Structures are given as structure tokens and as C-alpha cells.
């Protein structure tokens, strides 16, 4: 049995801030918590201590192309032209390349305060579309990257079979993504077997989008994987990210994407609807009432010109949501949450849009809601509560806004008044993985990632 004891002068609990907090950890889980306690025999945490968050949406390989699509080659540039560049890059990647990219990415995620990531992985095969010797080779590389970084991965092998609604044949650029339902189920089983018993890694079910799978495929996979102990396994899908997708869905089925999913498949707490940007009022209500999580990726959605999520209406109806970094143009939790709030202000021409009754500090609401939604979508329990995994981060109290803030103002100061990274230390399952802003493996990771970028783009 491993045991660690930590002491924080101030720590953020689900119910709010407490002082002189003693955190006792056994086998990676929080064994006991006490406030107004003594620091005797404990490791002192040198600043405000907060739970870390789960990042609910990642395509790790896309980190390699961050910043490379900001060139205007088309007066009507959109998500669809960005996708063409992504297809060209993905054709070059080996499994080892994916591990190198993901290791660098996951180290940077830890520095940003994320200690679990939902890896929405649709890169399965070699460039010719042939299966690797190990069915789940790419998933194994992602899990290995998580192990090297010390970050938990909720692996989401993606079913991707078609290029458009109605089972349209895939195009050449999608060859590395494509599986039949039978192939997908075998891939999923191989992934489950590989990760069985792992302390940090989890498994989920994933459909790329409604345009990439058919109703029959969704139902078959859910019937196969939605039984017995798998009934709590999260289910992720891209949905309603672009207006074109909405138009195509209506043309094919007579229903909008979320409307179709709610009516024909059904929604519940297992679902994470990634983006869900373009919703009508009925769809907003359907997601909120179902208990599903809206998987919001504000910096990627801004970068791709997706649109603005109807956050004010959704939250007013009790909707659950979490944060992902998706294409990884940003790995700043601060930037994600700030962009989400500011997008609502831009649209509404008003201030302080996202909050709830009883919590009118915008920063506190954003942080706690993102924590809860990320936990649900990644099937983890992060937060300072007994029985949860002992993941937490420590802010740098040498910064004036951190050092001088009252507890009730601290998150607002951090999220709305600072730009530099102020997450000084990070712990996962009781073990320190970021020490004074540094990760022990980052020097080697930087060298490997730099060499890879030069090979891909020079």
C-alpha cells in the first residue's frame, strides 16, 4: 500500500473553498480529508490547491498541425477546407509518430491542469487502409503516451464507415479511418483487453458522426457493448458542428442531427455530444433533460469558424457540459473557459452570461461545471472528495493576483485576469507529475517532437 499526506492552506472542494486542508492518499485515492487541520508530517502544497479536470475531447495527432492551417487559400475557407489539410498530414503518420505527438501533447495537458483525456481516436489503419498486426495498434500507442506522461486516457476507438448520410462510400482520404461494424467490435474488444485493470486508463464507445455511421450500426454496437457492466461506459459522437451537417441531415432524414439522435436512438447520461453547436430550442431541451453532456471545445470551434453554442439557454435548463481541446490549437484551460464565456457575451452584447442560481461568480461556475461534465464524459471521479482519485493542481501564489485574492475572487482573477500559465504543480493519483512547471520527460519529448515536425512540414 502506498500512502501520501499533503497539506494545503486553501483548497477548493465541490462545496467551495476550505482552509488548512489535510489530504491523505492511499493507493492513489483520497482516503481522508480534513479542514482546519495540522500540517504535521505532511508535504506542504505551496499555493491554492484545486482539483484537476478531465479533457473530454482530443484528437492527439492533430496537435502536429496546429497553426499550419492559418493561410487563406479560399475566400470561403471553412471546416471542410481545413479537413482537406488534415487528411494530407494524417497520410504521413506512423504509429510511432502518433506516440511522439501524444506524449508531447499529454505533458502539455498536465501542465494545463488536465489529468484525464478522452481520446477520440479514428486513426486505425496504415496509409493504404490495411489493418496493423495489432488491431488496436494506434490505441496502444496512445495508452503508452499516457503512461509516459502520467496522464489517464479514456480511450474512445471510433466507428467510422461512411463519408456521408445514408451510408455513402468513404473517400480516399478516409482510408485510415474506416471499419465495418464487425471490425469495430473486434477493435473495441482488443482495446478493452489491453487496458483491463489499468489504474488510470478507461474505455468508451464512439461513433464519429451521424454522417459516418448508419442507424443500424449504432444500434448493433450499442446492443453488443451496452450490456451488463458496460451500461455506464460513455458514448461519444461529433454532432451538429457545422451548418452543412444540419442541412444534410434534414435533407436525408427530415430531422436535425440531435433531433434524429434523440428520437431514433435515445439519449441518456452515457452520451457526450461533441460540439452540438447548432441546436434549435427543442434540441437544447432534449439534451438538457437527458442528462447527456455537451462536449464543448471553444478554441477549436472558434478556430474552425463553427459557431457559438447556445450556452445561456442550455444552462438555464440545467444542461451538463464539459471542456475539450479537440484539435489542440490551444492547451490552456483558462483560454477554453474564457472563450466559452466571451462567446456568449459577443452574441448577446451583455456581460456575465454563464452562471447558475446560488453561484453568481462566473469563474467558479465555469470551473466546477467543467469538472463535473468532464468526469461524467471520461468516467472518472476528479475532485477533492473521499474515494476520488487523488488528482489536483497547485496555483502559483507568487503571482500578485493569486497571492492577494480572497477565496471568492480567486477563480475569477485566474480565469479572467491572467494569461501566463499559473499551474505550478500537478499530481495524479497522489504522485507529482509537474514540479515547478516542469515534467521530468519534457526535454526528451521536445527533441523527438521537434524532429517529427521538421520531417512532416519542412
Question: What does it look like?
Answer:
The chain is an alpha/beta fold and 458 residues long. It has two domains: 3-51 and 383-438, Urease, subunit C, domain 1 (Roll); 53-378, TIM Barrel, CATH 3.20.20. 38% of the residues lie in helices and 20% in strands. The chain contains 15 helices and 17 strands. It has helices at 79-90, 95-111, 137-149, 181-195, 215-225, 243-253, 257-265, 281-290, 298-303, 311-316, 333-348, 362-378, 400-403, 407-417, 442-457; strands spanning 3-13, 16-26, 29-34, 43-45, 49-51, 53-58, 114-121, 152-159, 202-203, 205-207, 235-239, 271-275, 293-296, 320-323, 392-395, 423-428, 431-434. The strands form three sheets. Strands 6, 7, 8, 9, 10, 11, 12, 13 and 14 form a nine-stranded parallel β-sheet that branches. α2 (95-111) packs parallel to α3, α2 packs across α15 and α12 (362-378) packs across α14 (407-417). It is globular and about 65 Å long. The model has no long low-confidence stretch (mean pLDDT 96).
List keywords for this structure.
single chain; alpha/beta; Urease, subunit C, domain 1; TIM Barrel; 2 domains
Q: Determine the strand fraction and express it as a percent band.
A: 15-25%
Instruction: Supply Rg.
Output: 21 Å
Broad structural category: alpha/beta
Find the CATH topology of the largest domain: TIM Barrel
Counting structural domains, the number is 2
The first-to-last residue Cα distance is 50 Å
Backbone shape: globular
The CATH C-level name of the largest domain is: Alpha Beta
Amino acid at each position: 500500500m502506498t500512502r501520501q499526506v499533503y497539506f494545503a492552506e486553501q483548497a477548493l472542494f465541490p462545496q467551495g473553498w476550505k482552509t488548512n486542508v489535510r489530504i491523505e492518499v492511499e493507493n492513489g485515492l483520497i482516503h481522508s480529508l480534513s479542514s482546519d487541520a495540522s500540517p504535521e508530517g505532511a508535504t506542504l502544497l505551496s499555493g491554492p490547491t484545486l482539483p484537476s479536470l478531465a479533457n473530454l475531447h482530443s484528437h492527439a495527432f492533430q496537435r502536429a498541425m496546429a497553426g499550419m492551417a492559418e493561410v487563406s487559400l479560399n475566400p470561403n475557407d471553412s471546416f471542410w477546407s481545413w479537413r482537406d489539410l488534415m487528411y494530407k498530414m494524417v497520410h504521413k503518420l506512423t504509429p510511432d509518430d502518433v506516440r511522439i505527438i501524444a506524449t508531447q501533447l499529454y505533458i502539455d495537458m498536465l501542465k494545463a491542469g488536465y489529468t484525464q483525456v478522452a481520446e477520440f481516436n479514428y486513426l486505425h489503419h496504415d496509409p493504404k487502409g490495411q489493418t496493423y498486426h495489432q488491431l488496436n495498434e494506434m490505441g496502444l500507442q496512445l495508452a503508452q503516451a499516457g503512461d509516459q506522461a502520467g496522464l489517464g486516457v479514456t480511450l474512445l476507438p471510433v466507428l467510422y464507415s461512411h463519408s456521408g448520410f445514408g451510408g455513402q462510400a468513404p473517400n480516399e482520404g478516409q482510408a485510415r479511418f474506416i471499419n465495418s461494424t464487425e471490425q469495430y467490435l473486434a477493435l473495441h474488444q482488443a482495446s478493452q483487453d489491453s487496458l483491463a485493470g489499468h489504474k488510470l486508463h478507461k474505455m468508451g464507445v464512439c461513433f464519429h458522426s451521424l454522417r459516418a455511421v448508419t442507424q443500424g450500426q449504432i444500434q448493433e454496437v450499442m446492443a453488443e457493448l451496452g450490456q451488463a457492466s458496460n451500461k455506464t461506459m460513455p458514448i461519444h459522437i461529433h454532432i451538429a458542428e457545422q451548418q452543412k451537417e444540419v442541412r444534410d441531415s434534414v435533407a436525408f432524414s427530415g430531422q436535425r442531427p440531435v433531433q434524429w439522435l434523440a428520437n431514433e436512438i435515445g439519449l441518456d447520461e452515457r452520451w457526450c455530444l461533441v460540439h452540438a453547436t447548432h441546436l434549435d430550442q427543442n434540441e437544447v431541451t432534449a439534451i438538457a433533460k437527458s442528462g447527456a453532456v455537451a462536449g464543448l471545445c471553444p478554441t477549436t470551434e472558434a478556430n474552425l469558424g463553427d459557431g457559438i453554442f447556445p450556452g445561456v439557454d442550455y444552462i438555464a435548463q440545467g444542461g451538463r457540459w464539459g471542456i475539450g481541446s479537440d484539435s489542440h490549437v490551444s492547451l490552456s484551460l483558462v483560454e477554453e473557459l474564457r472563450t466559452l464565456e466571451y462567446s456568449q457575451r459577443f452574441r448577446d452584447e451583455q456581460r456575465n452570461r454563464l452562471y447558475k442560481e446560488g453561484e453568481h461568480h462566473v469563474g467558479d461556475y465555469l470551473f466546477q461545471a467543467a469538472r463535473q461534465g468532464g468526469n461524467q464524459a471520461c468516467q472518472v471521479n476528479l475532485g477533492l472528495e473521499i474515494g476520488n482519485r487523488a488528482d489536483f493542481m497547485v496555483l502559483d501564489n507568487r503571482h500578485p493576483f493569486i497571492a492577494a485574492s480572497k477565496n471568492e475572487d480567486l477563480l475569477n482573477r485566474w480565469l479572467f485576469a491572467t494569461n501566463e500559465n499559473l499551474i505550478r504543480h500537478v499530481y495524479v493519483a497522489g504522485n507529482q507529475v509537474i514540479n515547478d512547471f516542469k515534467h521530468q520527460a519534457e526535454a526528451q519529448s521536445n527533441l523527438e517532437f521537434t524532429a517529427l515536425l521538421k520531417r512532416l512540414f519542412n
